[in-house]
Amino acid sequence: MAEEQNVVMERPEPHEIIAPGYTFSSITDQIASVVQTKRTPPFWFLGFGLGLALLGVFAISTTLLFILGPGIWGLRTPVMWGFAITNFVWWIGIGHAGTLISAILLLLNQKWRNSINRFAEAMTLFAVACAGMFPILHLGRPWLAFWLFPYPDTMGIEPNFRSPLVWDVFAVSTYATISAVFWFVGLIPDLATLRDRAGNKIARVIYGLLAMGWRGSAKHWSVYETASLLLAGLATPLVLSVHTVVSFDFTVAIVPGWHSTFFPPYFVAGAIYSGFAMVLVLAIPLRSVYGLEGLITDKHLDNCGKVMLATGLIVAYAYILEAFTGWYSGNIFEAAAIHHRMTGPYMSSYWSLVACNIIAPQLLWFKRIRNTPALLFLSSMVVLCGMWLERFVIIVSSLAQDFVTSSWGIFHATRWDWGVFLGTIGLFLTLFFLFIRGLPMISIFEVRTLLPHAKVDKEVAE
Amino acid sequence: MSEPSASGHATAESAPAYGLIAEFQTPNALVKAARAAREKGYRKLDAYTPFPIEELTDALHLHHNRLPLLVLLGGLTGGALGYLLQYFVTVIYYPINVGGRPLHSWPEYFVITFECTILFAGLTTVLGLLGLCGLPMPYHPVFNAKRFALASRDRFFLCIESEDPLFERQKTAQFLESLDAKEVSEVAH
Questions:
Q1: Which of B112, B120, B123, B146 to mutate to test the interface with A (most CBs of A within 10 A)?
Q2: pTM for this one?
Q3: Which of A164, A222, A445 sits opposite B51 (nearest CB)?
Q4: Measuring CA to CA, which residue among B185, B158, B147 is closest to residue B169?
Q5: Which of A75, B58, B138, B183 has a C-alpha 20 to 30 A away from that of A163?
Q6: What ipTM does this complex have?
Q7: Is residue A337 within 8 Å of residue A260, measured between CB atoms?
Q8: Is the distance from CB of A198 to CB of B126 less than 8 angstroms?
Q9: What is the per-residue pLDDT across A275-316, written as a single tens digit (0 to 9) for each?
Q10: Structural domains of chain A in order of their starting residue, each with its CATH number
Q11: Which residues of A touch B31 (CB under 8 A)?
Q12: Is the Cβ–Cβ distance between A32 and A194 less than 8 Å?
């Protein structure tokens, strides 16, 4: 079993999605040896350690929250949604890029997705796990979260199916389930590879159980391909619907600054924007630490940068339209909501988000920026911050100053607001680093299909 | 790597083998061989590859499967259940009169109906995939084949099963060897 990486690889040309010189076996060895090795790079311990440390912060913050209740957060009337819902919307948006890459780009036959879909889907899964925490933690009595689901209870009451908050329960739980099964189905052939490659018995049994006896039969592959396309076809409307339903949480309310019909596309574009930023934040360090530049090439980063730019422009359009609608509606409350955002107590957040989400990403027009991983990493971080601020401003500034001046109130985050937020970043990092240590972070079998000798000649196929 | 043991070979003499397997080094050779085997009249055959090869699906005539139909049925069931759940709760079990608005407020049911459709269709896809492939299947005779561990790495296999009416150990082995195979060997049960 080749533990060492002996991949002879030339540097890929800027337009290539896989470096020349790869063979079926060198692809297999390079990706699998990240998992099947006795040597774990210090980077992994660093990342995992940081994750665990922040997870500790999460444990402390949530324990305190469970004991004392959401009053330890800065939630005070009228701002009762604060950080929790901001983080929920932010995390779930991040997840959207994974589904976009795995499902929508599959349907569009974009081959470059093959080397980034696996870890992007894992990112989706873990981001949704982090997102799902917040509405539950926010309940006040989180141990009664099952009341959200319709079941014949002894109290004789049922959830209100006319409420977007209940739609959210269905949308998010469906999204989590479908993302998980899509990810797992994609893993089966690679689990079989790890099983066949495993040196020690325990690993072989574990990967063998997970691979469920996959043997690469042509009969299975034909069903498998159908299943992948079907799942992609199902996940595509699903991913668009999830953030649409999340945006319904706001638009269906009559709060000025929320009650608007363009929220669904605006939210979905913002979700993909922040999601691609997260993909880049993960891909750039991973590919350099694990020497995967031949598989995740500059072309991939360039493409992700372009998607970010495009969705960033949609988001910019939405901000402009938001301001325009506030003015053009002739509704004094709508106009006031926009005015408060731009000049009120949250103006620093508002203008920072404009700087992060609209102005900074204009640099992505330059090919040189998109082809410099360090700068791309930096601009992705900026976008992640900007998108978090966007969610924060939409939620908090609208609630803080609504119709009646006497009911206004300003939100001040406490250290426990930050504790839970940083804690979910810890949860995300912990899960993600466990994933890259235990499972192939790039889809081995899909990358094999990118090789020129994976193609069958025309005359043979006739 | 699961090499058949010496005793395995000895019993294979008496017990009927699972089939004969040929190992190829390129997808081209495999697709050619699969096509030739079909033309020769073999029907009980399967190929094993490290990634999906569309031309192979053509060569082995595997294009039709019932998965899309199952998924359609699953999705319809999910949608119907989602809608009925909401209808039952809001109209029959737990009606709430809000200013005389109709209890059967179907536009409000749309989101959950949609989500249930996707959920059931997606789960049907996965269960259907496993069901149609007969997975999980911890043991399969083909795992006894020589160097079969490479089928998940960089080799391409074609197996003609002994159940095939045209299967004759000598003749079939000769036929497979004529196909540019790297090696032809017997697969024990």
A1: B112
A2: 0.90
A3: A445
A4: B185
A5: A75
A6: 0.90
A7: no
A8: no
A9: 999 999 999 999 999 988 888 988 899 999 999 999 999 999
A10: 24-461 (1.20.1630.10)
A11: 456, 460-461
A12: yes
